[in-house]
Specification:
single chain, mainly alpha, 9 helices, globular
Length: 170
């Protein structure tokens, strides 16, 4: 029986390695939808096959990539939750820079996609991310802020991080 169990375990490990090798081949294809590519990069990062997730996220969010494709990549990458976003300041900074660099029209168009991604995070994860972002921003911001602009920005962040109910209404 022990020999059969060892053989079955070895077979599962072999299948997993083949699966990860196949995903690794797909990770660099330019013809994949962003949702799928982001998901593959996350799976390979979690399996410790890739160690350049921040670089890949930066490339996915670079100029020249369609805004909807960027949002799809982000959704695929963060589909399993916010753990990497919470613990990796580089990923957080890239995502923050991307959102901050969106034009008003792009931001309005992408808000539902970004909300859908963040809506999958637990309340505790969203609070932690907000806390990490606000502490980073507080360290970098000067004291002469316009309170009205700050209030609008915080209201927008609250809208993004607020959970979505089943009907899709905030």
């Amino acid at each position: 029986q022990a020999q059969a169990d060892a053989s079955a375990s070895s077979g599962r490990i072999g299948l997993r390695q083949r699966w990860l090798a196949t995903l690794a081949q797909l990770a660099d294809r330019s013809d994949l939808h962003g949702l799928l590519q982001g998901r593959i990069v996350r799976l390979l990062t979690d399996a410790e096959i890739l160690d350049d997730a921040a670089h890949r996220l930066g490339r996915a969010l670079s100029a020249g990539v369609d805004a909807a494709d960027k949002a799809a990549w982000v959704e695929g990458f963060f589909a399993d939750g916010a753990l990497l976003l919470i613990h990796d300041p580089g990923l957080r900074d890239l995502l923050d820079e991307w959102v901050g660099g969106l034009s008003e029209a792009e931001f309005t168009d992408l808000l539902p996609l970004v909300r859908r991604t963040f809506g999958t995070f637990s309340a505790a994860e969203r609070r932690t991310i907000a806390g990490r972002l606000s502490s980073t921003e507080a360290a970098a911001v000067e004291e002469d802020l316009d309170p009205a602009r700050v209030a609008r920005a915080l209201a927008t962040v609250d809208l993004i991080l607020r959970p979505i109910d089943r009907q899709g209404d905030p």
